[in-house]
TrEMBL record, chain A:
It is found in: Endoplasmic reticulum membrane. This is Signal peptidase complex subunit 1. GO terms for cellular component: signal peptidase complex. Keywords: Endoplasmic reticulum, Membrane, Transmembrane, Transmembrane helix.
UniProtKB/TrEMBL annotation, chain C:
The lineage of its organism: Eukaryota, Fungi, Dikarya, Ascomycota, Pezizomycotina. Belongs to the SPCS3 family. It is found in: Endoplasmic reticulum membrane. It comes from Neurospora hispaniola. One of its GO terms (biological process) is signal peptide processing. This is Signal peptidase subunit 3.
Length: 103, 172, 227
């Protein structure tokens, strides 16, 4: 019972997203943060206002966090289609596979 | 973690990696120390005596070589006083003479009086040797974490708790 | 596994990189802004040497030089978006006793002031009324180069100066010199310079005429609080 509950909590806390979602996240992080940096510098330099530059930078970063950290539904639109259980060969138990590529 | 225990080679690799990170950080610190000739080339501001120039938590980069000119009046220096652990960041306001024997007096921009009171008893002036570097570059705020952690020890507990939570909630 | 924790770490990691790069650009932008500070006048208006004690409980008598001055300077080009404050100070400089042999000098600050940028006004150590006035003076602008225009007439010294030997009267070849220290929000601290570097011009005319300290004025100073 407790194990099940913990599993549910883990599911929520983990916030998994699918492979396509991961690709999208990577792109979004790079684009939004880099854009934030460029915009904050240019606006700050042109208006000669360093406070505004700081605010733009922090706002853009906060936005990126909100956009990327929670497992929003649009990151889970392409769930992996696993093979049927018991359908094929059973891999040997002692085999150690690099965690990332295995999952 | 558990897989590391099951496989001693992997555990050893992890240990080596950890050691590598530590020794790299240490070597970089010592390398900068050698380049700047300062035992502590990067310091965090701990007091408000240089406000509004420096706030608590700001990061200062020090340079301790006199390549082109001697350390002179107007420079902001970090100095040690005999018998006191904490280095002080203040501005030189008087300099009498030249070379390693020159007498230097410092004062915090935000303080009413000069530092005579802060020096060791019987000491009226600093000499060049008391100084561990002149401030040449500045980054605001990033050192504040160290102040938070040293002044609010319960934050360390909170951080440990958070790390534990992450470990519990992560599947192996 | 690409979990929320991992994403949090990655975003934070890239954020620090971006913040560092932007900060480096801000610091570098200083070098593209012209600096041409000039001093129009810097001269003494009254020079005295008085006897006093270093502090109330001291029995030691020392000679103190009391120098008042006039200053007209334009440091407005030092104020850019990355300027946090400019520390302006006037020093008196005179040759040391062994000057002929070693070229050694003595130098002491007689007056200083902190000019904050509007972006750093909230940090200034002043009372609430003065703070209100200071903020109002910026008129909502993000930078206020006009603050760099200094016009002081017969400015009272802030620090009486002395010498470790306790002797100062009749010292010759004393000069006043204006200095400044630009404190950035991020990047390199810079001081007044004697030669031009790129867009940054040397401080012009920042030294006063040579003058001689007079003999001791035999009158007890109202307060011997020179420290």
């Amino acid at each position: 019972m407790a194990e099940q509950l913990l599993d549910q909590v883990r599911d929520v806390a983990e916030g998994q997203i699918d492979f396509e979602g991961q690709k999208l996240v990577e792109l979004l992080v790079n684009v939004t943060l880099a854009l934030t940096g460029v915009v904050s510098f240019l606006v700050g330099y042109i208006l000669q206002d360093i406070k505004l530059a700081l605010q733009i930078g922090l706002a853009g970063t906060a936005l990126t966090f909100i956009l990327v950290v929670p497992p929003w539904p649009f990151y889970n639109r392409n769930p992996v289609k696993w093979l049927q259980v018991g359908g094929g060969l059973v891999p040997p138990q002692s085999l150690i596979v690099d965690e990332k590529s295995f999952r | 973690m558990l897989s590391g225990l099951a496989n001693p080679r992997q555990a050893a690799v992890q240990l080596m990696n950890f050691g590598l990170i530590l020794s790299t950080a240490f070597m970089m610190w010592k390398g900068i120390s050698v380049i700047t000739d300062s035992p502590s080339p990067i310091v965090v501001v701990l007091s408000g005596s240089m406000e509004p120039a420096f706030q608590r938590g700001d990061l200062l980069f020090l340079w301790n070589r006199n390549v082109l000119a001697e350390t002179s009046v107007g420079e902001i220096v970090v100095y040690n006083v005999k018998g006191k652990d904490i280095p002080i960041v203040h501005r030189i306001v008087r300099k009498f003479g030249k070379g390693p024997e020159a007498k230097l007096l410092t004062k915090g921009d935000n303080n009413v009086s000069d530092d005579t009171e802060l020096y060791a008893s019987g000491q009226d002036y600093l000499v060049r040797n008391d100084i561990i570097g002149s401030v040449f570059a500045y980054i605001p705020f990033v050192g504040y974490v160290t102040i938070l952690l040293s002044e609010h020890p319960w934050l360390k507990t909170v951080m440990l708790g958070l790390m534990g939570l992450v470990v519990v909630l992560q599947r192996e | 596994m690409y979990t929320s924790v991992v994403r949090l770490q990655n975003v934070f990691g890239f954020f620090t990189t971006v913040a560092f790069v932007v900060a480096a650009f801000i610091a570098a932008s200083d070098f593209l802004t012209e600096r041409a500070p000039i001093v129009r006048t810097l001269k003494t208006t009254s020079v005295q040497v008085v006897r006093g004690r270093p502090h109330y409980y001291s029995s030691k008598k020392e000679e103190y030089a009391v120098i008042n001055f006039s200053l007209d300077a334009d440091l407005s080009s030092l104020f850019t978006w990355n300027t946090k404050q400019v520390f302006v100070y006037v020093t008196a400089e005179w040759p040391a006793a062994d000057h002929a042999k070693t070229n050694a000098t003595n130098e002491a600050v007689i007056w200083d002031t902190i000019i904050t940028s509007p972006s750093a006004d909230h940090l200034a150590n002043i009372g609430p009324v003065a703070m209100k006035k200071l903020r109002k003076s910026a008129g909502g602008k993000s930078i206020d180069p006009n603050r760099g225009k200094l016009s002081l007439k017969n400015q009272r010294h802030k620090y009486k100066i002395t010498h470790p030997s306790g002797k100062l009267a009749m010292t010759d070849n004393v000069t006043l010199r204006l200095h400044y220290n630009v404190q950035p929000w991020v990047g390199l601290l810079t001081w007044d310079q004697d030669v031009d570097y790129g867009y940054w011009k040397a401080l012009k005319n920042g030294v006063s005429k040579r003058f001689k300290l007079p003999a001791i004025k035999e009158k007890k100073p109202a307060s011997a609080g020179a420290r």
